[in-house]
Amino acid sequence: MLKVLRLKAKMLEDLNSQITFCLVEGGYLEDGKGLSNWDVFTHIPGNIKNNENGDDADDDYHLFLEDAEIAQSLGVNAYRFSISWARILPRGRFGEVNPGGIKFYNKIIDNLLLRGIEPFLTIHHFDLPQELEDRYGAWLSPLMQDDFLLLAETCFKSFGDRVKYWTTINEPNVFAEMSYVRGLYPPAHCSPPFGNCSVGNADIEPLIVVHNMLLAHGKAVKLYRERFQSKQGGSIGLVVQSHMYEPLRDVESDRQAVNRALAFTGGWVLDPLVFGDYPPEMRQYHRSELPRFSSEETEYMKGSIDFIGLNHYSTLYAKDCIHSPCVLGGDHFIRGFTFTTGERDGTLIGEPTGVERFYVVPRGMEKIVDHVSKRYNNMPIYVTENGYCPPLTEAAPNLLHDVNRVHFYNGYLAALARAIRKGADVRGYFAWSLMDNFEWAGGYSSTFGLYYVDRLTMNRTPKLSAKWFQHFLANRSSARFNRQRFVNPTPKSRRVRKSKYIVIATTNANATDV
Fold it and tell me: Which UniProt keyword terms apply here (predicted)?
């Protein structure tokens, strides 16, 4: 969500400010938009915390000009957002393109560019037309590949003359985990020991889903490179989420478990896009259900990203489940025969947050960026998400005076700076998120934003962290501004000077490096 870091070793260009419209957009049936899988899922009692839904979300559909102004006032030079599939193609390929949806996103893109902010567009972020789920099971079917290709082509044609940074799909591994292993996202498939759903197979379905998503990505990138890239001059990648992992015990088997955990999460998605096949750590323990790519598919899959989008929040311990007994599904292939936890000998790996398994472990940022950089030949990386949610017990006044979020960003950005000094080619960094929003199954209780949103009035109020970022991006060290100015942040944002140096978007940096 923000740009950030002036570094001695390397100058970064294009800070990114992140917002994902399926979380903030609202307007769920306005101007021709169709029903999405999330529209249906959130209206079923019990699926979302407090039975909340995203019908209005942050009402960005009507307030996007105000939100773009807020982003500009912070000093960011890039803004990450996502397309709502059902707003562009309400019925997928079984219907027509919705002109109202195209018009809405054109307004956003044009307004950002007028403000000197680069659009960083994600084509698919979890939500999809419900009709595709009803007709053929969405991502469980290879038919979904062609539906996604149509969406991507529509976006390239409609927005590609101005959008220069594309990501095809956000977090295929998280989507598979939450929708087909744990059953907490639509279509709510799972099986024991991961959950008790009415339908699903957690050992097989996630493999099929990710395979179809990767092939859809590969086809979209092939189309973009053959028909649009040379004329439009953009770059294209995919976003993956990955924890970092550390051995639970000081034994070789747990060190190998760390390698498997990394391969069965980020590597599961990135290896096919860089090398043309799933990680050898997965093939080594493969069952017949792990799909294979044909020679033709391998040809267009290999090298099908110009950059890596990396979402990172936390670090966990990993324990081997091949030679040791494990619980909670760690002994399953889908988990890489690895048990992961945030606790060792009664001590947490880092401060807990408001999200399960998201602990504050800044060193993990340096380690995961270093790992990704080395495994994938120092390919350009954008940190596309990084942020902090306070424990849900915090009172409202503390939500505005969010000192812990400032500490989080400071620590994680310092760790990112260390990774860059070691040679990682990090091109940008996005903070998650610009404002509190609808956080999927967590509803509105998880608050990652730099801005607080009043659920009744939709007023946006800057938190302490927003003021910190504003000054940080204006290239001032913590020693140069008056801390008292941050104690009672005012609701009116102030435009700040853009740094000529650069910078990244989301998580933290050491003020001494600025």
Answer: Glycosidase, Hydrolase
